[in-house]
Design brief:
74 residues, alpha+beta, four-stranded mixed sheet, 2 helices, 4 strands, globular
Amino acid sequence: MHNTNFFDAMDPRLVYVREVAVADLPEDMQDEADGQETLFALHNADGERLAVVKERGMAYSLARENDYSPVTVH
């Protein structure tokens, strides 16, 4: 039986999309939120935030345009 570490098998082109409260973002990002209460962030497998956008659909489109496979995180 082959023992593979789950994280070694993860697709490096996978990004995680999650809803974030604007209040939890850095102040300079809050200032650019245009009255939104929540935004959608894309993160890589290491948890690094790659982008923040206003709509879930926009997050998925942005990921795909950049050859990433988006998945939702709750």
